[in-house]
Amino acid sequence: MVEQQLNEIIQKMTLNEKIGQLIQLATPFFKGASDKGEITGPMTGMGITDEISQNCGSVLGASGAREVMNIQKAHLEKNRFGIPLLMMADIVHGFKTIFPVPLAMGCSWDLDLAEKSAEIAAKEAAVSGVHVTFAPMVDIVRDPRWGRVMESTGEDPYLNSLFARAFVRGFQGTNLTDDQNRVAACVKHFAAYGAPEGGREYNTVNMSERQLRESYLPPYKAALDEGCEMVMTAFNTVDGIPATGNKKLMRDLLRDEWGFDGVMISDWGAVKELIPHGIAEDSSEAAVKALQAGVDIEMMTTCYVDNLKQLVENGTIEETLIDEAVLRILKLKQKLGLFENPYRGADEKREQEYILSEEHRKAAREAAAKSCVLLKNQSVLPLNRHQKIALIGPFAQNGDILGPWSWQGSYEEAVKMDEGIKMKIDPALLTVAKGCDIETGTENEMNMAINAASEADVIILALGESSAMSGEGGSRANICLPDIQLQLIAEVKKLKKPMAAVLFNGRPLDLHGVIDQADAVLEAWYPGTEGGAAIADLLFGDANPSGRLSMTFPYSVGQVPIYYNHFNTGRPKTSEEYVRYVTHYLDIPNEPLLPFGFGLSYTTFSYTDAMLSADTMNSEQPITLSVSITNTGNVAGEEVVQLYIRDVAGEIVRPVKELKAFKKIMLQPNETKEASFTITEEQLRYHHENLQFTSDAGTFIAFVGRNSQDVSALTFKLVN
Ligand code: GLC
To answer: Is residue 411 in a domain?
Structure first.
């Protein structure tokens, strides 16, 4: 059906029918829905009539081939023009086969892996009747107090942009109309939701347009450049105006400057929230501001259906604004082939074949192993298989390892830590005692764990945050492990036995009491359905850790927001000696506990012969940086060679370093490989005072190494 035909339908639709296309409701409002729909926000009395439901354009949180087909069938029987519903849901890091949370995937620095995970998620979701996923979430995150840092791939604009593209490629493929194993992607949350003051959920975001464009917008743009079909608005203000009613951000920048003509959906209730934000006195004014900002679909509030008809009739808004929104929505339905086949890829038989298949589980296991980060290892890991092991801690036998956005994922289907270890050793060698729950415990439980540990040769501590302590609404002011778990570590430590901690958490933690006590620490994040199996692969050396932190671990919460690509200030702290009048704290260091890009391996790597092909470059003549990396250990391992660049003096203050490229290379023992990077003038551009995105001639420093701190520096000039 071509655009003209869609317009012809629109012209025949009543105003109410057009407005109905602009609302999205959760499954409870639809005939044919079961009760397992996804409710991810407040649901107050909404006054949804049958007429509204019958005119509705899209459904939130429906899944399961049978349920979706029932809802769609019942809807089409009532909809005058047979306009099919769009089925949208949060498939963020897996549908039934749950992959590591995005922050973990970001630590893999493996874009093919990320694309594969999204492709599998799309395949399982599409066969279950989902058409659109509310992913990727690409918000830049610098404050681990915020619960949703787990949903982002991290703090770096370049790395997040690459992952945004990879996820969109995986979800959408290259032909959404014909490839019914794919779903449309919806990049979120536009914009800068990851920068709430105090790390407090839904709090104010305050930043200059320059910082927004320089650091926060690139990943959204990358997703759209990769063809992402939809954009979801953020709950927060951007420069004093809530994103959902922000014409400058949405119409002027997103639609006019970037040329995005796809569907824009509000986040849950964000249209009506313009009232408490204070830019709308009532739902009518909220509807005007959101529609004028270009929001096509209002999710789960009724400002549009309650007010737009009257607003058109009294001349407050042009009906053409509604028509253009409806056209964008119908074009997406057309692109997904829904007019030809409203049931698209939904298929109960194939659903059983695809969901949680061995192939998918294998991919999830590989992804989990590559997303874990080895933070410390003093000769404890990998474990040998003939020693007595005590597995202690609240995550020893806990299925809550899927993360807060695992919706259709099931704890029962997850491979737990004890199950993973039993795949590797004689179960008679393993003793399990949780010692405490995640935030509470009893003396008896603690004593049982100490007794179990006292009998073992080596102790594995399985510790962390419940998924409820993370994710949306999961901000924490204290980012340490719960006290009871720190007490458990201290008690087990008294036994003076080798002790390795495995962490299940959704944010960088303040690891005092953990990393100074344990002999080894493996950061597993929320590793997903195959978590226990992947961790066992790593603990016993069947896989070698290769993850590198995509988000800084602070020394303490007092440092946040903390990130590697910071400004130098006018009084940088340049030595360890005490100097009062430089940028510092009296009571903690400036440096983080663990820097961006950090991660250990079971082998070691040396960097030699770092050099530049020339010491000057221009826009026509790039230069090349090359460096040799040798595996100096006795097992094969992957190294992530990282290239950062600093612009020593710009028109605007420039970060002390910015990630510009990386290469993940596999090296056999004693093998040496050369990594080379081409440095181009485009990579040196930034937003100037007038917001023009250009470069300046002058001095630059290239840094190459194993993380954002451990690097070699090479100076070069850009000349005109
Ligand atoms: C939630 C989240 C958003 C999600 C939406 C639908 O409030 O902010 O990320 O996609 O509602 O579930």
So the answer is: yes
